[in-house]
């Protein structure tokens, strides 16, 4: 009884106390814990700053949208749980893309000059300018080829030869006194020929185009004196004239039977030219007998053939007496003495 009475008040007090005591927290349960999101390791501050410095307009726009969303979510009441903001790692390929975009923008800004918009005007100007430039290049190349071609060089040489021969003929028409060394020097400067070339060209012209008479011989003698060339130089001029004749018409052929009419005329002309040059070479007033004079060897003529073709007198082309009369007195004395030297 005693035990039951002791227990009963305890039980009643315990029951009353249970109504007044606060409710204890529920027992520990692992499921009641809030799972916090796991965060990855933070990136270095320098890398984050560099990545933010490379932001493009598109990335800035996406970032602003993200920040506005985060601000709206932060202002809205949540269920009492705070979520820590986590900075995501950029993939490797995205980092390379950002680097490329940044480098391209930097290079574009570094290029000087105005930025040309998409307009058809530059193309409209480029097409005619390209056509004009191409036309100029083509015209320049054609002009260079025209002035440097063998045909053009030959034409210029022929024009200079014609100018030279015409000028000398005009001097002889004015009088032999006009044919001076100074006048020949002026022709040298105008044509670019040497004194030997002037004498050689006029001798060849006179032998081909003019009758071989005393007047022509006197003109050649006077031109030879005005040139003031030495006997060796005059002999070289006659040798060169002979070489050019042989190169053009061939050597002297004594037996001309069996040739065609054209070949016959050519060989007769070669024989006549050889006789004229041989006559000039044997004139003491024109050229002394020098060992360098090899006219016979150039034409392929023997001594017997040379005697046959030699012009002993000018009776075939003029009178010797008329030739001696046209030569001045001093030249006549030199004819008799057989010794004349260049002045």
Automatic annotation (TrEMBL):
Membrane-spanning residues: 123-144
Region (Disordered): 28-87, 323-343
Residue ranges constituting the Armadillo-like repeats domain according to the UniProt record: 191-282
Regions of compositional bias (Polar residues) in chain numbering: 58-73
Pfam families: ARMH5
Biased composition regions of type Basic and acidic residues, renumbered to the chain: 323-337
Keyword Transmembrane helix: yes
Keyword Membrane: yes
Keyword entries, A-Z: Membrane, Transmembrane, Transmembrane helix
GO CC annotations on file: chloroplast envelope; chloroplast thylakoid membrane
Name of the molecule in the record: Uncharacterized protein LOC105042494
Organism: Elaeis guineensis var. tenera (Oil palm)
Gene name of the encoded protein: LOC105042494
């Amino acid at each position: 009884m005693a035990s039951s009475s002791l227990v009963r008040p305890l039980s009643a007090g315990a029951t009353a106390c249970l109504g007044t005591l606060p409710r204890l927290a529920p027992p520990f349960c692992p499921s009641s814990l809030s799972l916090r999101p796991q965060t990855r390791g933070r990136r270095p501050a320098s890398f984050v700053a560099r990545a933010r410095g490379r932001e493009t307009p598109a990335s800035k726009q996406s970032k602003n949208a993200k920040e506005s969303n985060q601000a709206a979510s932060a202002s809205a009441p949540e269920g009492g749980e705070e979520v820590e903001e986590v900075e995501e790692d950029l993939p490797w390929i995205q980092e390379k893309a950002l680097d490329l975009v940044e480098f391209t923008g930097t290079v574009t800004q570094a290029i000087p000059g105005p930025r040309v918009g998409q307009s058809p005007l530059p193309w409209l100007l480029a097409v005619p300018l390209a056509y004009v430039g191409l036309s100029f290049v083509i015209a320049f190349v054609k002009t260079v080829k025209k002035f440097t071609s063998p045909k053009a060089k030959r034409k210029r040489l022929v024009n200079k030869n014609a100018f030279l021969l015409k000028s000398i003929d005009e001097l002889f028409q004015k009088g032999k006194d006009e044919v001076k060394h100074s006048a020949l020097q002026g022709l040298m400067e105008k044509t670019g020929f040497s004194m030997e070339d002037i004498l050689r060209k006029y001798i060849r012209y006179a032998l081909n185009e003019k009758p071989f008479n005393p007047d022509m011989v006197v003109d050649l003698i006077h031109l030879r004196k005005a040139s003031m060339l030495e006997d060796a130089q005059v002999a070289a001029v006659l040798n060169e004239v002979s070489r050019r004749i042989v190169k053009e018409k061939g050597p002297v052929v004594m037996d001309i039977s069996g040739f065609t009419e054209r070949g016959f005329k050519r060989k007769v002309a070669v024989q006549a030219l050889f006789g004229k040059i041989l006559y000039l070479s044997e004139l003491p007033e024109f050229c002394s007998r020098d060992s360098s004079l090899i006219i016979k060897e150039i034409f392929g003529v023997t001594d017997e053939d040379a005697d046959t073709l030699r012009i002993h007198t000018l009776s075939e082309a003029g009178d010797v007496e008329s030739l001696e009369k046209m030569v001045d007195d001093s030249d006549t004395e030199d004819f008799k003495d057989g010794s004349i030297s260049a002045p």
